[in-house]
Design a protein that fits this description.
It is a single chain. The protein is built from 3 helices and no strands. The protein has about 100 residues and is mainly α. The radius of gyration is 18 Å and the shape is elongated. It starts with a helix and ends with a helix.
Length: about 100
């Protein structure tokens, strides 16, 4: 019989992988329909998808019993990707704000 904690980790893994489909789908939709070369939003989507996929792998590896690998390697990688997402977001936001301020003047 599988432990309840393992079952929950497997369910979380499935949910994370399903959730990763959304930013990947939006990336491809924007790639096909956006002709304005707005790569910033697409970059944010890829970093977000990478974070969600690493979280899914983290939960899957934890469910298999490799908690040392999950906590020691995948958790810091996930944290770094989340920080990268925040940095990309603030860079994108500041560029958009500068562009908007330039249009107003």
């Amino acid at each position: 019989m599988i432990l309840i904690q393992t079952q929950i980790s497997i369910i979380q893994t499935i949910v994370y992988f399903v959730a990763a489909v959304v930013p990947i789908f939006l990336f491809f939709v924007l790639k096909m329909h956006d002709n304005s070369n707005n790569n910033h939003f697409r970059g944010l989507l890829i970093v977000l998808a990478g974070f969600v996929i690493v979280q899914g792998i983290y939960h899957f590896v934890g469910a298999l019993g490799f908690s040392q690998l999950a906590k020691g390697i995948l958790e810091p990688i996930s944290f770094v990707i989340l920080l990268l997402f925040a940095i990309c977001y603030f860079i994108t936001r500041s560029k958009a704000k500068r562009k908007e301020d330039a249009k107003v003047q």
